Amino acid sequence: MSPSTPPTRFAYLGPEGTFAEAALSIAVASSEGARYPQPSVPAALAAVRSGDTDAALVPLENSVEGSVPATMDGLADGEPLVITREVFLDVVFVLAARPGTELSAVRSVASHPHALAQTAGRLAELLPDVVPLPTSSTAAAAEAVAAGEYDAAVCAPIAAERYGLVPVVEDLADHPGAATRFVLVEPAGVLPAPTGNDKTSLVVVVEDRTGALLDVLREFSVRDISLTRIESRPTRERKWVYSFSLDCEGHVADRRVGEALAALHRVCEDVRFLGSYPRADGRQNRPVPAMADDPAFAEADAWLAAIRARA
Ligand SMILES: O=C(O)C(=O)C[C@]1(C(=O)O)C=C[C@@H](O)C=C1
């Protein structure tokens, strides 16, 4: 593990006032680097790949709406990048409009598709005749409302304030208490040191055969590694061939995790390492049983070496 220079130039899903910007402020103090808002998740990832920025802060999944496809696919394909940090942010939505706008006068609503999905029920109740329109982010919608392109935006209270809008409806979420998980992404090769409470992320592609997924799961199970997320995505390059995107407990520097990855490399068509980083969801990794901890692996290595030395 080589110590790397901490990032100082950060891309994020912009413009100013997005949830991504709020998450970046949790991850990095504003005095610690320059921020570069990007028009989309692919643009934020491209900024890291081109070297224009050192890192990007992008949304990965939401506790109500699930994964963010642009991030999942952007990490699974292209020049390898790694997650070096995760950040959880509670998301609260308002319906924001230009000052003086009554709810009954709202004829158009815009926001990021994930935000529209999390408020679809309330919007249908409040504005049954309005078909919500997608924008690249919640703050982009607020900016467009300020410019007169739409009547209202679903956005964070801070975005409403930033663009001179006022909340027409507060607490708009269908399922209050939702949170979004954001990740800080850096070029492959950056590896945060193990903390004892880490997660590792991977994308694996398996052959289309009976038991292929079971073979993947077995490599974790036999080493007492708990998965915290698994989902499938189309590979897109090959029709009806899927990849599995997953997070597990532990760090690639842990023997059991390293051995599981090496085993997956043997049994899968492709394995992409997406980073090991400190766990930040407020939970503690399950205790590692004595037979799966690093000293147990070292003792087993010594035992095998002794047998081979005698042979
Ligand atoms: O548009 C924003 O403000 C974002 O940061 C993106 C995003 C998302 O992709 O899920 C983040 C949190 C909310 O769930 C809605 C939108």
Automatic annotation (TrEMBL):
GO terms for molecular function: prephenate dehydratase activity. Its EC number is 4.2.1.51. It is an enzyme of class 4 (lyase). Residues 9-187 form the Prephenate dehydratase domain. It catalyses: prephenate + H(+) = 3-phenylpyruvate + CO2 + H2O. Residues 201-278 form the ACT domain. One of its GO terms (biological process) is L-phenylalanine biosynthetic process. GO terms for cellular component: cytoplasm. Gene3D superfamilies: 3.30.70.260, Periplasmic binding protein-like II. It holds the Pfam family ACT. Keywords: Amino-acid biosynthesis, Aromatic amino acid biosynthesis, Lyase, Phenylalanine biosynthesis. Pathway: Amino-acid biosynthesis; L-phenylalanine biosynthesis; phenylpyruvate from prephenate: step 1/1. The record marks 180 as: Essential for prephenate dehydratase activity. This is Prephenate dehydratase. The lineage of its organism: Bacteria, Bacillati, Actinomycetota, Actinomycetes, Geodermatophilales.
